[in-house]
């Protein structure tokens, strides 16, 4: 029997009847072998309620061919336990933990079957943040340091529990799930697609463009609509502007953490120019209102094209000068090099994605492996480093800012305002009894949205994966054997999203 339905990130939605329903143990044995090949990684894995129990869906990405493998299973014995894929391949851990939390499914031999988000609809209501089972190590010389969940300023809540031997970190456990926002539930409460779009662009405030694009591409696949080339190009410009702005912010924040205030001020000035450019385009610094299904309320005009080109050309020039200074700052290099090592093998094991994975030598970039939109019409070369440390994560940002600025300049050079960009469409009929997904390379990495529809074409299940879901474990690995005073720079070198995790 065929185990997978094979598609790609540009194909239309898949009819549910076309997705194989397989025996779990057959799938388990296949994945146990298949996932040893690093060309494969899991994009999403979840369960949904059906009349007689649960149906499980899984999306596996083939980074070599660009294929997306979709499968499902309906076991009649999951109450007694399913063999844990996490025990063989740790990258499955957040998905199995979530399904255990929501539905009480035991995964036999799972090494870390703890709550993932403390969702309001979790099966075990007695499991609370106050009773979270933090990992413990016994030893007279050891001590624990707790940071959070409340942090200074307006940062979201998250708890960091360090086990230390003196100043050296032996283990860090990160507990999230304080916000209970219910994003995925809100996405199916109403058929109002404008409301859904507003929710999508609020999943992670610093990735409004990335998540809104993922939502819109998913809806367009369900509607069977192919948007114009001009709209695809303008969406790409918006995503790359978001990438530039956030990498600038992180460069400045890393400089702040080691006392290089001049670099921080310079980066903040450049970030301000970038987000003000986005605001001049659509009225919002973070790109909210810019991405809408099947059209746009803010198509580029000649004046806006000229403004974007002028501002980004200037940002690129000034950032190149700053980049040279950073790479010659011996004090900075001494703090960042060989600090927070996450070897490529560990990134592969945990399913690491995005800029953090590429800094560890893992060539994982949706723009290259599974392109959609305008990325499918160009050749993107991922920036990959091999040093695996804080400096590599910074250096990846340094190069990606330049690369993104070059994309913006190249795409807008000679680009004339288009008349074929339609107004947004919130009423198109969606394919019934179907699964639709989208993959977008946000500035943090791989974003994956998945939706299931009923016979009337109404979305009845919506699942979101922010890249932070995979990479929080990378931060915990990075600080092992480091001094606890190095936690801030390691944390900022990943700059992961609390709210992207706490859906």
Task: Write a concise synopsis of the structure shown.
By secondary structure, the chain is an alpha+beta fold.
Structure description:
By secondary structure, the protein is α+β, with helices and mostly antiparallel strands. It has two domains: 5-120, Beta Polymerase, domain 2 (2-Layer Sandwich), CATH 3.30.460; 183-501, Cytochrome-c3 Hydrogenase, chain B (Orthogonal Bundle). The chain contains 16 helices and 13 strands. The strands form four sheets. Strands 1-5-4-3 form a four-stranded antiparallel beta sheet, with helices on one face. A four-stranded antiparallel beta sheet has the order 2-11-12-13. The chain has a three-stranded antiparallel beta sheet with strand order 8-9-10. The longest helix is centred in the middle third of the chain and has 29 residues, at 229-257. The chain is globular. The relative contact order is 0.15.
Name a few traits of the molecule.
503 residues, alpha+beta, Beta Polymerase, domain 2, Cytochrome-c3 Hydrogenase, chain B, 2 domains, four-stranded antiparallel β-sheet, 13 strands, 16% strand
Write the layout of secondary structure elements.
Layout: E1 5-8, E2 14-15, H1 24-34, E3 40-50, E4 53-62, E5 67-73, E6 82-83, H2 93-103, E7 107-108, E8 142-147, E9 159-165, E10 168-175, H3 183-189, H4 193-200, H5 208-223, H6 229-257, H7 261-282, H8 302-327, H9 330-336, H10 344-350, H11 354-358, H12 366-369, H13 390-412, E11 434-441, E12 446-453, E13 459-465, H14 468-478, H15 487-494, H16 498-501
Parallel strand pairs: 6-7
Antiparallel strand pairs: 1-5, 2-11, 3-4, 4-5, 8-9, 9-10, 11-12, 12-13
């Amino acid at each position: 029997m065929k185990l997978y339905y094979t598609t790609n990130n540009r194909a239309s939605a898949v009819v549910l009847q076309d997705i194989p329903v397989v025996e779990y143990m057959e799938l388990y044995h296949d994945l146990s072998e298949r996932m040893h090949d690093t060309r494969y990684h899991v994009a999403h894995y979840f369960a949904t309620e059906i009349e007689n129990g649960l149906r499980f869906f899984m999306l596996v990405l083939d980074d070599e061919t660009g294929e997306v493998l979709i499968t499902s299973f309906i076991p009649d014995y999951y109450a007694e336990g399913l063999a844990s894929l996490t025990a063989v391949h740790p990258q499955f851990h957040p998905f199995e933990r979530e399904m255990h939390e929501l539905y009480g499914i035991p995964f036999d031999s799972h090494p870390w079957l703890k709550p993932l988000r403390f969702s309001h609809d979790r099966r075990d209501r007695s499991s609370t943040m106050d009773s979270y089972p933090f990992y413990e190590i016994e030893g007279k010389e050891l001590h624990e340091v707790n940071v959070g969940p409340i942090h200074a300023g307006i940062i979201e809540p998250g708890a960091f529990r360090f086990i230390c031997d003196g100043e050296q970190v032996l283990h860090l456990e990160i507990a999230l799930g304080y916000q209970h926002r219910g994003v995925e539930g809100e996405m199916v409460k109403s058929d109002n697609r404008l409301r859904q779009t507003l929710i999508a662009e609020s999943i992670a405030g610093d990735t409004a463009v990335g998540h809104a694009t993922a939502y819109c591409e998913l809806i367009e696949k369900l509607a069977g609509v192919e948007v114009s080339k001009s709209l695809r190009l303008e969406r790409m410009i918006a995503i790359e502007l978001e990438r530039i702005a956030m990498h600038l912010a992180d460069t400045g924040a890393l400089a702040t953490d080691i006392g290089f205030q001049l670099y921080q001020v310079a980066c903040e000035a450049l970030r301000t120019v970038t987000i003000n450019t986005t605001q001049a385009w659509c009225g919002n610094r973070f790109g909210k209102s810019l991405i809408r299904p099947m059209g746009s309320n803010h198509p580029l005009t000649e004046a806006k094209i000229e403004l974007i080109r002028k501002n980004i050309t200037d940002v690129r020039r000034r950032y190149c000068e700053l980049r040279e200074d950073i790479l010659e700052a011996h004090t900075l290099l001494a703090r960042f090099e060989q600090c927070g090592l996450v070897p490529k093998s560990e990134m592969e094991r945990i399913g690491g994605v995005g800029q953090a994975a590429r800094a560890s030598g893992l060539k994982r970039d949706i723009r290259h492996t599974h392109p959609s939109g305008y990325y499918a019409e160009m050749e993107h070369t991922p920036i990959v480093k091999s040093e695996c440390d804080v400096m590599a994560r910074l250096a990846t940002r340094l190069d990606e800012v330049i690369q993104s600025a070059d994309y913006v300049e190249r795409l807008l050079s000679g680009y004339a305002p288009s008349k074929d960009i339609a107004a947004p469409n919130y009423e198109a009929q969606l394919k019934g009894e179907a699964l639709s997904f989208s993959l977008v390379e946000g500035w943090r990495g791989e974003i994956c949205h998945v939706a299931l529809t009923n016979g009337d074409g109404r979305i009845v299940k919506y699942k979101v994966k922010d890249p932070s879901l995979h990479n929080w474990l990378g931060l915990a690995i990075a600080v092992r054997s480091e001094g606890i005073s190095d936690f801030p720079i390691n944390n900022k070198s990943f700059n992961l999203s609390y709210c992207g995790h706490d859906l």
